[in-house]
Design a protein that fits this description.
heterodimer; A: 169 residues; alpha+beta; Glutaredoxin; 7-stranded mixed sheet; 5 helices; globular; B: 89 residues; 4-stranded mixed sheet; 4 strands; Glutathione S-transferase N-terminal domain-containing protein (chain B); Glutathione_S-Trfase_N (chain B)
Chain lengths: 169, 89
């Protein structure tokens, strides 16, 4: 998109890079029928490749765009693909329905944003007092949670390089 | 994380579900919690298991038992896991 003004640059930050081990965490993981506590490490243990997508809160247009794109590209056929946002499990259930991704994708619920802080990608939200959420980010992990690919937004808003992620799958 | 063999299907803030949780805790049983939606029509997973859409419902992989209704569940847990464990071989 060509804009005749600068978009917001985000500060440089440190996050898990390629070759490093992504922090483990446990949060409610929402599928089309229920949610239960699940750890990232158990997802990785069950799959050769996990794509962890941090996105804006459900309902914000970036969340809608990201999931439409991932759905249309069918990433679930090549990897276990999970999202993470600060939205509640109830909101996640709606997102799964509305994006028509129920059954193929699951979403971690992290209203406290602790996972994003663990990954070093937490971001305050101007004009929404007391709220923070993850920067948009994508981590491709192997079965041991080793980072094979990492992308973290440098601008706000910003969207993943979908082709670059897909090249890893 | 360990993989408990008891699974409790529950609804947030449902007193019947909390009754079962209290019993599970009292008996020191490990269990996994799966939360479903308030709308009955959204509870196909429970219907598939028990034939009904009500919660609480439990699945006990050790015994093969699947059951709903909190009073039944509490009785079942007491009968199955509430026995005197002191010294018996």
């Amino acid at each position: 998109m060509d804009l005749d003004f600068d978009v917001v640059d985000l500060d440089e930050i440190e996050y898990p890079e390629e070759g490093e081990t992504a922090p483990d965490f446990t949060r409610p993981l929402v599928n089309d029928e229920y949610w239960e506590d699940e750890s990232l490490s158990s997802l990785c243990a069950d799959s050769d490749r996990v794509v962890l997508v941090f996105h804006a809160m459900d309902g914000a247009f970036p969340a809608t765009y990201v999931w439409n794109e991932i759905r249309d590209r069918g990433w679930h056929e090549d990897a276990t693909v999970v999202g993470c946002s600060i939205s509640t499990p109830y909101a996640h259930k709606r997102l799964l329905d509305e994006r028509d991704i129920a059954g193929d994708y699951r979403l971690f619920s992290d209203p406290g944003n602790g996972v994003a802080r663990e990954y070093g990608i937490d971001m305050d939200l101007d004009g929404m007092a007391g709220l923070e959420e993850p920067r948009p980010a994508v981590f491709v992990l192997d079965g041991d949670r080793t980072v094979e690919y990492a992308w973290v937004a440098a601008e706000w808003p910003d969207f993943p390089d979908y082709d670059a992620v897909e090249a890893q799958l | 994380m360990s993989d408990p063999t008891l699974t409790l299907y529950r609804l947030q803030a449902c007193p019947f579900c909390e009754r079962v949780v209290r019993k599970l805790d009292a008996l020191g049983l490990e269990y996994r919690s799966r939360f479903v939606e308030p709308m009955h029509s959204e509870r196909d997973v429970v219907k598939r298991l028990t034939g009904k859409r009500t919660v609480p419902a439990i699945v006990d992989e050790d015994t093969g038992v699947t059951m709903s209704e909190s009073a039944n569940i509490v009785d079942y847990l007491d009968r199955t896991y509430g026995g005197d464990t002191g010294g018996a071989a």
